Amino acid sequence: MKFIKAHATENDFVVLIDVDDHNDVTPDQVAFLCDRRAGVGGDGLLRVVRRDGTWFMDYRNADGSVAEMCGNGIRAFAHVLVAEGLEDAREFYVDTRAGVKHIRVLSADSTDAVVAVGMGAVEVTGVSTASMGDHQFAGLGVNVGNPHLACVIPGLTAAGLADMNFVAPTFDPEFFPEGTNVEVLTELRDGQTHMRVWERGVGETRSCGTGTVAAAQAVLADAGVEHGTVTVNVPGGAVEVELNEGQATMTGPSTIVFRGELSS
User: Fold this and answer.
1) Active-site residue among 62, 70, 78, 81?
2) How far is CA 151 from CA 70, 113, 182, 205, 256, in A?
3) 183, pLDDT greater than 80
4) N or C: lower Cβ tally within 10 Å for the chain?
5) CB distance 120 to 104 below 8 Å
6) Greater confidence, 202 or 14?
7) Binding-site residues from annotation for substrate
8) CATH topology of domain 123-245
9) For the whole prediction, is pTM greater than 0.90?
């Protein structure tokens, strides 16, 4: 089976081309392929499938668990469709376990792309807390097709965030019965925030696309602003998130690193 290694703001993926949906993968196979020492290496795996005339992104976390949606992953997915000649249009739809997403490929070649994704509705689910080592945070519960706890820390600087000892968080299992992603954020300043994220089923990653949407929602709410556009800076780069009337659009880069073929 052909595969592609891709990343979107350094959130990296093994992408399997399985248009005819003949090669489902087990959790153990996913974990092996995502292993950075024994496999290809990645934060997750994307399987490119065509079902009932619509593209479907089958996304798995690095531990093999099934995930509803990945915002960075869907940019890489769309890039692969165009770069590999599987999709001629520059505007199309991709189905996910979190619903159908509207895609606009703003630019693309065999290695680099810029993709805008209609992320759909953003739902604020309440306020909760998390602990990370010696730190305790209050944050906004946000559903972007998957769960997030986005924590804006008063007075936190970008340098302070970078120096923070980032470890596996604990959170309220009653508030998040399926687990959650946890974002730690600086306050909104000049239309920007800085973010680090601990992803459910993965650990800390260089970026999380749905997390940047949750981050934008949280920093705007913290600033008392209902709508707006936020540049979310992550260790792997930056994306732009526009929130308007409860709907989010995320725009950011994708890079194809290399192509290969699995022997078995």
Assistant:
1) 70
2) 20, 30, 8, 16, 31
3) yes
4) C
5) no
6) 14
7) 11, 61, 71-72, 146, 181, 199-200, 209-210
8) Diaminopimelate Epimerase; Chain A, domain 1 (3.10.310)
9) yes
Q: Is 34 a catalytic residue?
A: no
Please work out, in degrees rounded to the nearest 5, the angle formed at the alpha carbon of residue 19 by the alpha carbons of 27 and 26: 10
Per cent of the chain over pLDDT 90 is 94
Residue whose tokens read 């989010």: 248
The structure tokens listed for 171 are 């959170």
Catalytic residue among 78, 130, 132, 208: 208
Angle (CA) 126-63-47 rounded to 5° is 95
Interval 71-89: pLDDT, tens: 999 999 999 999 999 999 9
Q: Are 207 and 8 in contact (CB under 8 A)?
A: yes
CATH superfamily ID and name for 2-119+251-261: Diaminopimelate Epimerase; Chain A, domain 1 (3.10.310.10)
CA atoms within 13 A on the CB side of 2: 11
Q: Pinpoint the alpha helices (H) of 22-174.
A: 27-34, 71-83, 158-163
Instruction: Output the six-digit token pair for 70.
Output: 């990945």
* Distance, CA of 238 to CA of 44 (rounded, Å): 20
Average pLDDT of the segment spanning 23-49: 96
pLDDT at 264: 64
- The CA distance from 262 to 69, in Å, is 25
What confidence tens digit (pLDDT) does each residue in 61-71 have?
A: 999 999 889 99
Bind-site residues = 11, 61, 71-72, 146, 181, 199-200, 209-210
- Backbone torsions φ then ψ of 213, nearest 5 degrees: -70, -45
CB atoms within 10 A of CB 56: 18
